[in-house]
Amino acid sequence: MALIIFDFDGVLADTLDDLIQFGQEVCDELGIKHLVKKEDLSSLENMSFASFGRACEVPEALVDEFVQRCLKRFAEKKSPPAIFNGLSGMLRRFAVRNTLAIVTTNSSQNVHAFLAEHALEKCVHAVYGIDIPGSKAQKISIAREQFASGTQREAVFMVGDSISDIRAAKEASVTSVAVTWGHQSLEHLLRGKPDHVVHSPQDLIEVIERTK
Questions:
Q1: N or C terminus of the chain with fewer C-beta within 10 Å?
Q2: Which string of b and e fits 154-168 if b means at least 16 CB within 10 Å?
Q3: 87-97 and 201-211 helices, crossing angle to 10°
Q4: pTM higher than 0.70, yes or no?
Q5: In b/e form, how buried is each residue of 99-109, taking b as 16+ CB within 10 angstroms?
Q6: Lowest-confidence range among 7-16, 87-96, 147-156, 179-188?
Q7: Phi-psi region of 65 (alpha: psi -120 to 50; beta: other; left: phi over 0)
Q8: How far apart are CA 210 and CA 201, in angstroms?
Q9: Beta-strand pair 2-6/99-103
Protein backbone atom coordinates (compact mmCIF):
# COMPACT_ATOMS: atom_id res chain seq x y z
CA MET A 1 0.00 0.00 0.00
CA ALA A 2 0.95 3.62 -0.50
CA LEU A 3 -0.37 7.02 0.51
CA ILE A 4 -1.05 8.99 -2.66
CA ILE A 5 -1.73 12.70 -2.16
CA PHE A 6 -3.13 14.74 -5.02
CA ASP A 7 -3.30 18.43 -5.68
CA PHE A 8 -6.76 19.41 -6.95
CA ASP A 9 -6.82 22.24 -9.51
CA GLY A 10 -5.01 21.16 -12.67
CA VAL A 11 -4.38 17.61 -11.45
CA LEU A 12 -7.85 16.15 -10.87
CA ALA A 13 -10.12 19.07 -11.78
CA ASP A 14 -9.93 20.82 -15.14
CA THR A 15 -10.35 24.32 -13.73
CA LEU A 16 -8.18 26.46 -16.02
CA ASP A 17 -11.06 28.13 -17.88
CA ASP A 18 -12.93 28.73 -14.61
CA LEU A 19 -9.85 30.24 -12.98
CA ILE A 20 -9.32 32.65 -15.86
CA GLN A 21 -13.01 33.59 -16.00
CA PHE A 22 -13.45 34.01 -12.25
CA GLY A 23 -10.16 35.86 -11.92
CA GLN A 24 -11.25 38.31 -14.60
CA GLU A 25 -14.68 38.82 -13.05
CA VAL A 26 -13.20 39.51 -9.62
CA CYS A 27 -10.57 41.87 -11.04
CA ASP A 28 -13.34 43.78 -12.82
CA GLU A 29 -15.39 43.96 -9.61
CA LEU A 30 -12.41 45.24 -7.63
CA GLY A 31 -11.52 47.81 -10.28
CA ILE A 32 -8.25 46.10 -11.25
CA LYS A 33 -7.32 46.94 -14.84
CA HIS A 34 -5.77 43.60 -15.80
CA LEU A 35 -6.49 41.12 -18.59
CA VAL A 36 -6.33 37.69 -16.95
CA LYS A 37 -4.60 35.05 -19.05
CA LYS A 38 -3.14 31.56 -18.70
CA GLU A 39 0.36 33.00 -18.22
CA ASP A 40 -0.77 34.50 -14.91
CA LEU A 41 -0.94 30.92 -13.62
CA SER A 42 1.69 29.11 -15.66
CA SER A 43 4.65 31.07 -14.32
CA LEU A 44 3.73 31.16 -10.62
CA GLU A 45 6.38 30.03 -8.15
CA ASN A 46 3.70 29.40 -5.52
CA MET A 47 0.43 28.08 -6.95
CA SER A 48 -2.33 29.57 -4.82
CA PHE A 49 -5.30 31.89 -5.23
CA ALA A 50 -3.38 34.60 -3.37
CA SER A 51 -0.38 34.33 -5.72
CA PHE A 52 -2.77 34.25 -8.68
CA GLY A 53 -4.28 37.51 -7.46
CA ARG A 54 -0.87 39.12 -7.12
CA ALA A 55 0.00 37.99 -10.67
CA CYS A 56 -3.21 39.73 -11.77
CA GLU A 57 -1.88 42.99 -10.24
CA VAL A 58 -4.30 42.92 -7.31
CA PRO A 59 -2.99 45.24 -4.55
CA GLU A 60 -1.88 43.44 -1.40
CA ALA A 61 -4.70 45.01 0.61
CA LEU A 62 -7.24 43.36 -1.70
CA VAL A 63 -5.61 39.93 -2.13
CA ASP A 64 -7.68 38.24 0.60
CA GLU A 65 -10.85 39.67 -0.94
CA PHE A 66 -9.76 38.35 -4.36
CA VAL A 67 -9.25 34.86 -2.87
CA GLN A 68 -12.62 34.78 -1.12
CA ARG A 69 -14.51 36.00 -4.18
CA CYS A 70 -12.85 33.40 -6.42
CA LEU A 71 -13.61 30.59 -3.96
CA LYS A 72 -17.20 31.80 -3.67
CA ARG A 73 -17.61 31.57 -7.42
CA PHE A 74 -16.39 27.99 -7.45
CA ALA A 75 -18.82 27.15 -4.63
CA GLU A 76 -21.73 28.78 -6.45
CA LYS A 77 -20.98 27.25 -9.84
CA LYS A 78 -23.99 25.23 -11.03
CA SER A 79 -21.90 22.12 -11.55
CA PRO A 80 -18.42 21.25 -10.22
CA PRO A 81 -15.47 21.24 -12.65
CA ALA A 82 -14.88 18.44 -15.14
CA ILE A 83 -12.41 15.72 -14.27
CA PHE A 84 -9.53 15.10 -16.64
CA ASN A 85 -9.96 12.11 -18.96
CA GLY A 86 -8.87 8.82 -17.45
CA LEU A 87 -8.63 10.04 -13.88
CA SER A 88 -11.90 8.59 -12.56
CA GLY A 89 -10.79 5.06 -13.42
CA MET A 90 -7.28 5.74 -12.13
CA LEU A 91 -8.57 6.95 -8.74
CA ARG A 92 -10.87 3.95 -8.39
CA ARG A 93 -8.00 1.61 -9.23
CA PHE A 94 -5.64 3.27 -6.76
CA ALA A 95 -8.30 3.31 -4.01
CA VAL A 96 -8.53 -0.50 -3.95
CA ARG A 97 -5.08 -0.99 -2.38
CA ASN A 98 -3.92 2.48 -1.38
CA THR A 99 -4.92 5.48 0.72
CA LEU A 100 -5.81 8.62 -1.24
CA ALA A 101 -5.88 12.21 0.01
CA ILE A 102 -6.13 15.68 -1.52
CA VAL A 103 -4.10 18.72 -0.44
CA THR A 104 -5.18 21.92 -2.15
CA THR A 105 -5.42 25.69 -1.98
CA ASN A 106 -9.06 25.38 -3.04
CA SER A 107 -11.70 24.93 -0.35
CA SER A 108 -12.55 21.53 1.13
CA GLN A 109 -16.21 22.26 0.35
CA ASN A 110 -15.49 22.71 -3.35
CA VAL A 111 -13.41 19.53 -3.47
CA HIS A 112 -16.10 17.45 -1.74
CA ALA A 113 -18.71 18.77 -4.21
CA PHE A 114 -16.41 17.73 -7.09
CA LEU A 115 -15.90 14.25 -5.63
CA ALA A 116 -19.63 13.79 -5.13
CA GLU A 117 -20.38 14.98 -8.68
CA HIS A 118 -18.03 12.35 -10.10
CA ALA A 119 -19.01 9.58 -7.63
CA LEU A 120 -15.50 9.48 -6.15
CA GLU A 121 -16.16 10.47 -2.52
CA LYS A 122 -15.59 6.90 -1.29
CA CYS A 123 -12.18 6.78 -2.98
CA VAL A 124 -10.62 9.70 -1.08
CA HIS A 125 -9.93 9.34 2.65
CA ALA A 126 -9.21 12.99 3.47
CA VAL A 127 -9.25 16.48 1.99
CA TYR A 128 -6.96 19.23 3.33
CA GLY A 129 -8.17 22.50 1.84
CA ILE A 130 -7.39 26.19 2.25
CA ASP A 131 -9.75 26.19 5.24
CA ILE A 132 -7.31 23.99 7.17
CA PRO A 133 -4.38 25.93 8.70
CA GLY A 134 -0.84 25.31 7.53
CA SER A 135 1.29 25.31 4.40
CA LYS A 136 0.94 22.65 1.73
CA ALA A 137 4.07 20.93 3.04
CA GLN A 138 2.62 20.90 6.56
CA LYS A 139 -0.64 19.38 5.31
CA ILE A 140 1.29 16.70 3.41
CA SER A 141 3.08 15.89 6.67
CA ILE A 142 -0.25 15.77 8.54
CA ALA A 143 -1.62 13.30 5.98
CA ARG A 144 1.52 11.19 6.23
CA GLU A 145 1.32 11.06 10.02
CA GLN A 146 -2.38 10.24 9.89
CA PHE A 147 -2.26 7.51 7.25
CA ALA A 148 1.33 6.29 6.82
CA SER A 149 2.92 6.30 10.27
CA GLY A 150 2.87 2.59 11.09
CA THR A 151 5.91 0.54 11.98
CA GLN A 152 6.35 -0.31 8.31
CA ARG A 153 6.38 3.10 6.65
CA GLU A 154 4.32 3.20 3.48
CA ALA A 155 5.53 4.97 0.37
CA VAL A 156 4.09 8.50 0.16
CA PHE A 157 3.60 10.37 -3.12
CA MET A 158 2.58 13.98 -3.79
CA VAL A 159 1.08 14.37 -7.26
CA GLY A 160 0.97 17.98 -8.46
CA ASP A 161 0.98 20.23 -11.51
CA SER A 162 3.04 23.13 -10.17
CA ILE A 163 6.59 23.85 -9.09
CA SER A 164 5.27 24.71 -5.61
CA ASP A 165 3.72 21.22 -5.33
CA ILE A 166 7.11 19.71 -6.07
CA ARG A 167 8.83 21.92 -3.51
CA ALA A 168 6.18 21.13 -0.89
CA ALA A 169 6.72 17.41 -1.47
CA LYS A 170 10.47 17.83 -1.02
CA GLU A 171 9.98 19.90 2.14
CA ALA A 172 7.74 17.16 3.55
CA SER A 173 10.22 14.45 2.47
CA VAL A 174 7.82 12.56 0.22
CA THR A 175 8.15 11.46 -3.41
CA SER A 176 7.18 14.19 -5.88
CA VAL A 177 5.33 13.39 -9.10
CA ALA A 178 4.72 16.21 -11.60
CA VAL A 179 1.89 15.89 -14.13
CA THR A 180 2.07 17.74 -17.43
CA TRP A 181 -1.66 18.07 -18.13
CA GLY A 182 -2.13 20.85 -15.55
CA HIS A 183 -1.56 24.59 -15.28
CA GLN A 184 2.24 24.77 -15.64
CA SER A 185 4.59 23.80 -18.45
CA LEU A 186 7.04 20.91 -18.37
CA GLU A 187 9.93 23.38 -18.60
CA HIS A 188 8.70 25.22 -15.50
CA LEU A 189 8.06 21.98 -13.59
CA LEU A 190 11.55 20.65 -14.30
CA ARG A 191 13.02 23.62 -12.47
CA GLY A 192 11.69 22.02 -9.29
CA LYS A 193 13.52 18.74 -10.03
CA PRO A 194 10.57 16.36 -9.43
CA ASP A 195 11.32 12.72 -8.68
CA HIS A 196 9.03 11.68 -11.53
CA VAL A 197 7.26 13.35 -14.45
CA VAL A 198 4.14 11.78 -15.98
CA HIS A 199 2.21 12.71 -19.10
CA SER A 200 -0.92 10.59 -18.67
CA PRO A 201 -2.92 8.74 -15.98
CA GLN A 202 -1.44 5.47 -17.25
CA ASP A 203 2.07 6.87 -16.74
CA LEU A 204 1.10 7.74 -13.16
CA ILE A 205 -0.20 4.24 -12.50
CA GLU A 206 3.03 2.73 -13.80
CA VAL A 207 5.26 5.06 -11.76
CA ILE A 208 3.46 4.45 -8.49
CA GLU A 209 3.08 0.70 -8.91
CA ARG A 210 6.77 0.43 -9.84
CA THR A 211 8.00 2.66 -7.01
CA LYS A 212 5.86 1.90 -3.96
A1: N
A2: bebbbbbbbbbbbbb
A3: 20
A4: yes
A5: bbbbbbbbbbe
A6: 147-156
A7: alpha
A8: 14
A9: parallel
